[in-house]
Amino acid sequence: MNPISDHLKKNLDILFVGFNPSIRSGELGHHYANPNNRFWKILFEAGLTPRKYEAAEDAKLLEIGYGFTNIVDRPTKAADEITKEEYREGRENLKGKIEQYLPKVVCFVGKGVYQQYSGRKVAPWGKQDGSVVPGVIDFVAPSSSGLVRMKLDEIVAIYKQLGGINLNK
């Protein structure tokens, strides 16, 4: 199964970074394509998109300043299938992408994604103190996976904070 394409351009408002594609995303070639994943619903309910987009429209979000990538490219059933070597390589690749494209905010879709990227053991929800790439805001949000046990309204409240970040640099 092939990795799915990143959707990147310079100076994005928000770059969303997941662990890796689901099997369903790998099959369809789109980010957050698993029907149990609540990503698109969360973005809409948090006021980050004007309507609820479908996974097949992921590239269209570049038009409103949002991009997508993952720390690991290989699709898996679950994040626990990702190897330490894949995370090490992914961390370096992701840092290079962020340095090249310089989004205003990098939103890590899952605390574990940020911990793998930053090497930090503790990461509160929301905007982080300091960032890995200078000049880029690191933001930690809950995973949108249907496996996450947080209530949807709690998750949406955290994502709403993204709309309150001053993106004017």
TrEMBL record:
GO terms for molecular function: pyrimidine-specific mismatch base pair DNA N-glycosylase activity; uracil DNA N-glycosylase activity. Transmembrane segments: none annotated. CDD domains: UDG-F2_TDG_MUG. It comes from the Bacteria. One of its GO terms (biological process) is base-excision repair, AP site formation. InterPro entries: MUG/TDG, Uracil-DNA_glycosylase-like, Uracil-DNA_glycosylase-like_sf. Keywords: DNA damage, DNA repair, Hydrolase. Residues 7-153 form the Uracil-DNA glycosylase-like domain. The keyword Hydrolase applies. This is Mismatch-specific thymine-DNA glycosylate (Mug) family protein.
